[in-house]
Amino acid sequence: MNIATTEADxxxxxxxxxxVSRDKNIGREVIVDALEQxxxxxxxxxxxxxxxxxxxxxxESNEIELFQFRTVVAKxxxxxxxxxxxxxxxxxxxxxxGDSVGIKIDTSTFGRIAAQQAKQIIVQKVRDAERAQVYExxxxxxxxxxxxxxxxxxRGDIIIDLGRTEAVIPYREQIPxxxxxxxxxxxxxxxxxxxxxxxxxxxxxxxHVSFMTALFAQQVTEIYDGIxxxxxxxxxxxxxxxxxxxxxxxxxxxxxxxxGLKGMRVQAVVSELNGEKIDIIPWDKDPAKLVxxxxxxxxVTKVIVDEESRSMEVIVADDQLSLAIGKRGQNVSLAAQLTxxxxxxxxxxxxxxxxxxxxxxxxxxxxxxxxxxxxxxxEGIKTPDEIAAMSxxxxxxxxxxxxxxxxxxxxxxxxxDARQPAPTAEPSQEQQELIDNxxxxxxxxxxxxxxxxxxxxxxFLRLRGVGExxxxxxxxxxxxxxxxxxxxxxxxxxxxxxxxxxxxxTLQIAADRYxxxxxxxxx
Length: 523
Prior knowledge:
Elements: H1 13-24, H2 28-47, E1 52-58, E2 63-73, E3 82-84, H3 85-91, E4 100-105, H4 111-139, E5 145-154, E6 157-161, E7 166-169, E8 185-194, E9 201-205, H5 209-219, H6 221-224, E10 228-236, E11 240-247, H7 254-259, H8 264-272, E12 277-282, H9 287-294, E13 300-306, E14 311-316, H10 321-325, H11 330-339, E15 342-347, H12 348-363, H13 370-378, H14 384-388, H15 392-399, H16 403-415, H17 429-436, E16 439-440, H18 447-460, H19 468-476, H20 482-487, H21 490-497, H22 501-522
Parallel strand pairs: 2-3, 7-9, 11-12, 14-15
Antiparallel strand pairs: 1-2, 2-4, 5-6, 5-8, 6-7, 8-9, 10-11, 13-14, 15-16
């Protein structure tokens, strides 16, 4: 079948292949393969699905040649796949029984329907090849910043026109309080590229921490040149972020390079992030110094490092406690994310009260005086059972004791209730709210509490337009059912979840719509 003759306006198959390959930017071999598959598909209407058919493009004759292969047999039982020895000799006089003979088929008899089917297959093959090409192109652009124009908004997700394909910014990957309209220009960070039935789906994020660091790389030439590097970053999208920077050149100030002349560089990033506050701190290989830098603007008095549990007890002056913790624990949580350490913030007065009580309990052990209790506390020993667990030699060396006295002291410590928890100073009601936010550690929940929280998050994710961050905020706020969200006022939802009032109203609308849809389904 010469495809060039199936459409009146096409006079050369070779020109068709060349033009389609050039216009669609697709390899010539892809077009040829599509044509060959189309011819085979058209032939199966007349020759059956079981026929052994092959198609090849002949450049010299400028046509797609179709061959049916039959097995040479003495007695024909299957007319489609077998041929007698006598008839086979008409095609090739050297053939023998058991050979396979390829018989060229006249494709001009296929008709208009077969030609239309062939055309549909070619179009589909070309479309699939285009999609594969676009997928490969954007797959290589993961971790890059792309920009485009808003095409539409679907259920809270922003659909971006990138030219060759569309990208989506899911609701959970958007910066809170940002609003876009069709044709607005927007840029984001490519986090994933997925294959989909309608073509590749490019997932873009504006809330990802790497979006912020990539923006700095665009603005700060020293980062692009490799002189300054962003060693770590933490982000609360739309509110506040922290980055730790390091310079490989002693003459280059990494913080100053990122801030820029009159703050122009950092302001460019802040403007793109919708006014998000950014703290730029110098990175230090000493974790304690890095934590002190990360908690700025609060001034740290003392840091007690526990390497084994990878945690730090950070001591600050009483008037610095609120500043170190930040609003709703934001400062300490970002500092913990930035450094990778579990941080426990305490004021000097609360620490002093706690240490006084610990010394009092240790001193209650027979044989331990005030000075010895001071030494034990200084070495990190806080309970009598820790004394009982010490070796005789270690206690002798630490308190300068004789062997017999060390044995008696260990025995006396074992008699005290080893399970008595280390006491803490009783905080005032005003301080309690600060202390509740002072420790940042996502692993403190029990397995049962975590399972219950995960189930509630999964339930809230059923609400249209609700992302993981909002679902988690609802679960952490104590909401047990979707109906509970509607029972509160928008102000109460905002207050409990610490989400903006606009987001709280959106959550209530989504909850109300969900309940109405469920009621309609039951009716």
